[in-house]
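> forwarded from #structure-qc
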């Protein structure tokens, strides 16, 4: 009796497993496609009351966005044409209702059946795979976790904690201005936003994490800031390319590999900041000892925070909170500052008044102090007006958890995405 099989016979096996595997794969694809088509039909039925720009059957409205800086203008134009509420399709299956009317925004922002979703200045519709760049921190957490973390972090925003930051921010600004003087002497143009990003990253690392990285003076491109740029670009790209809406396809793609690589850079950066601070504090046993020696920063509060049960933040929660404040804290601030400088450059008459007011507030001092901030009301108004015209985060995203009815009687079901855009009237 022959008890052995040839390799080919064993490979085919019974009942020809490679055929079975192919059939199973086909079944999964058909099943998934059936579900997506059913969701699309349901969405189209729900959108019957919402008119909007006609979408392409496959690409949706993706081809309308040229990525040339006019995307927001396109959305605002559609809002004026379609009564400020209209659906946008990103591929054949993903749809978002865009809101620009204040009454609709009020319903979305005040309804109990709507969940907050993280944005990085762009749409982000993948809360599990993209939440991206900042973990599940205070910005995107909800429920009891949000209340607990917010209570633990509240001491970090007290005036007594914030006042010493003014001096540290001034030091970072001086480093940036010293670099700009070298360009002024040669009349060489440079990208302002890059320098401002390094300055805001340097500031938040000094103020919130007691970390002196010298990121403004080190040569080359800062790895963390480059990773932030890559993550923002890849999240936007994933939204525009509907095959990437699948976690599996995106994970296996070159862009998915690039996303994970950039994400690892931000994680490593965060973990290094926490590790260095823990080492610096390992000889301190009580919070009072630290307060007696130095001001309390944000990371100290995270490390020593305890709730009513004397439970602190887990390592994962701590990384998420540090990542959130590091990522959102420096990037949005850099965007706001850059546009403030742009507005002042475009309006030299207001720039002149601001300069005069600041010089009078400083007297013979070289840098601003906390008490001087109340002495520059005109400059403060210019800053607020620039932020109104060019908000660092021009929109917010929400997702319904139950049926929501708007002021005009139109309704949307649970599971629908909304994007509310700030309307600027110059």
């Amino acid at each position: 009796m022959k008890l052995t099989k040839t390799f080919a016979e064993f490979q085919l096996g019974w009942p020809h497993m490679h055929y079975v595997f192919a059939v199973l794969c086909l079944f999964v694809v058909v099943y998934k496609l059936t579900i997506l088509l059913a969701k699309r039909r349901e969405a189209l039925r729900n959108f019957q009351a919402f008119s909007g720009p006609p979408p392409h059957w496959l690409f949706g409205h993706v081809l309308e966005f040229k990525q040339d800086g006019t995307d927001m203008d396109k959305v605002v134009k559609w809002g004026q044409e379609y009564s400020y509420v209209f659906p946008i399709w990103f591929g054949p299956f993903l749809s978002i209702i865009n809101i620009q009317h204040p009454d609709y925004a009020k319903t979305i922002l005040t309804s109990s059946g709507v969940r907050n979703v993280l944005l990085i200045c762009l749409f982000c519709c993948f809360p599990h795979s993209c939440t991206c760049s900042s973990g599940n921190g205070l910005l995107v957490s909800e429920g009891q976790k949000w209340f607990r973390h917010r209570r633990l972090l509240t001491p970090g925003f007290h005036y007594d904690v914030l006042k010493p930051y003014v001096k540290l921010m001034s030091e970072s600004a001086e480093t940036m201005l010293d670099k700009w003087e070298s360009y002024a002497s040669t009349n060489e143009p440079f990208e302002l936003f890059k320098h401002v990003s390094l300055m805001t990253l340097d500031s938040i690392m000094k103020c919130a994490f007691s970390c002196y990285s010298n990121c403004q003076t080190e040569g080359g491109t800062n790895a963390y800031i480059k990773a932030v740029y890559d993550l923002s670009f890849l999240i936007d790209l994933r939204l525009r390319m509907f095959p990437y809406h699948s976690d599996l396809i995106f994970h296996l793609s070159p862009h998915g590999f690039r996303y994970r690589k950039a994400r690892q850079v931000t994680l490593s950066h965060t973990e290094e900041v926490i590790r260095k601070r823990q080492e610096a504090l390992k000889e301190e046993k009580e919070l009072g000892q630290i307060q007696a020696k130095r001001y309390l920063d944000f990371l100290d509060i995270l490390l020593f925070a305890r709730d009513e049960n004397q439970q602190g933040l887990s390592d994962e929660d701590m990384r998420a909170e540090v990542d959130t404040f590091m990522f959102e804290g420096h990037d949005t601030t850099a965007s706001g500052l850059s546009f403030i400088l742009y507005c002042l450059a475009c309006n030299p008459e207001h720039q002149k008044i601001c300069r005069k007011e600041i010089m009078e507030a400083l007297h013979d001092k070289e840098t601003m102090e906390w008490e001087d901030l109340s002495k520059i009301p005109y400059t403060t108004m210019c800053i607020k007006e620039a932020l109104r015209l060019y908000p660092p985060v021009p929109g917010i995203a929400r997702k319904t958890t139950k049926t929501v009815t708007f002021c005009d009687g139109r309704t949307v079901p649970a599971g629908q995405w909304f994007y509310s855009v700030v309307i600027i009237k110059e």
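QC bot note: Residues 118-134 have pLDDT under 50 and may be disordered. The first helix runs from residue 7 to 12.
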